[in-house]
Amino acid sequence: NAGVTQTPKFQVLKTGQSMTLQCAQDMNHNSMYWYRQDPGMGLRLIYYSASEGTTDKGEVPNGYNVSRLNKREFSLRLESAAPSQTSVYFCAGAGTNLYEQYFGPGTRLTVT
Amino acid sequence: EDKVVQSPLSLVVHEGDTVTLNCSYEVTNFRSLLWYKQEKKAPTFLFMLTSSGIEKKSGRLSSILDKKELSSILNITATQTGDSAIYLCAVDLQGGSEKLVFGKGTKLTVNP
Description:
The complex is a heterodimer. By secondary structure, chain A is mainly β. Chain A has strands at residues 4-7, 10-13, 19-25, 32-38, 42-49, 56-57, 64-68, 74-78, 87-94, 101-103, 107-111. Chain A contains no helices and 11 strands. Chain B is mainly beta. Chain B contains no helices and 11 strands. In chain B, the strands form 2 sheets. In chain B, strands 2, 4, 5, 9, 10 and 11 form a 6-stranded mixed sheet that branches. Chain B is globular, with a radius of gyration of 14 Å. The termini of chain B are far apart. Classes of the chains: A mainly beta, B mainly beta. Chain A binds chain B through residues 31, 33, 35, 40-45, 48, 50, 56, 58-59, 90, 94-95, 97-106, and chain B through 6, 9, 31-32, 34, 41-45, 48, 88, 90, 92, 97-105.
């Protein structure tokens, strides 16, 4: 039972490049989330998916897109990376207690 | 705009001290308040509070919610170096979507 997994763990991109961050969970969560964490800013919600086939914007969605491919997987795409997107990205799933979120290990992304 | 404010932003104490971390919120449609501990990587869930005045306890950690004051405190007694972490407070909102609004966190450092 791996919980919530994310790939890659680290990534360096040049400005304008694109990439997809992958997230998968084996905890049968209905809801999944993407956050970014910057120093001194706490966690900010980018997008979330309350169930398979649905996605909604969070607090900071600009520059990102998401896909809820199936119940297990929720990916985050940066179409044209910018230095302002340098951050640590966390994926999370809602547990059996709907408001108790389980987090993946994070992806550290640097855009130069 | 929904807002969660934590104080202090950082705190340095000696082993054995007792600390109190604060979280206040201004949100529409409050449902519950959650505390997380974040060490080197992903946040891990500590407590969920929904009812005012009922203390949740886990070992040396305890937390209580005051709905009248729109706030919560997290107490850690007899601190240890392993308590060093960022403590995040988040508020869950009603309204059909399972979203959390996070504060910026309190960075606690416990020195031997």
